[in-house]
Amino acid sequence: MIKEGVPEKFKEKIITIDDRREAIKHALKIAQPHDVIIVMGMGNETSRVVKGKTMEWSEREIIKEEAELL
Question: Between 31 and which of 3, 19, 35, 67 could a Cys-Cys bridge form, CB atoms 3.0 to 4.6 Å apart?
């Protein structure tokens, strides 16, 4: 939905990664000093439903874990 609002001249710069953890990992990997990474959509939720299964999920923890691996 966000991609639909992006001006046409910038659409070729968009990278779409369906897996949230992989998307976070990618954003952290390509970020340069003074960049801002905004992770939107799940906020403070502590779980998510994937294919009918509820699983624990904390984007704060995911970001911390992935950042430590860099």
Answer: 35
Cα distance between residue 30 and residue 53, in whole Å:
31
Structure-token pair, residue 9: 């001249």
Ordered per-residue pLDDT tens for the chain, 70 residues: 788 899 999 999 999 999 999 999 999 999 999 999 999 877 778 888 889 999 898 888 999 999 999 8
Q: Is-contact 54 47, C-beta < 8 A? A: yes
Largest CA distance in the chain: 39
For residues 50 and 60, what is the distance between their CA atoms, to the nearest angstrom?
19
Question: 16: which 2 tokens?
Answer: 């779409």
Q: How many CA atoms lie within 13 A of 29 on its CB side?
A: 8
Backbone angles phi, psi at 23, to 5 degrees: -65, -45
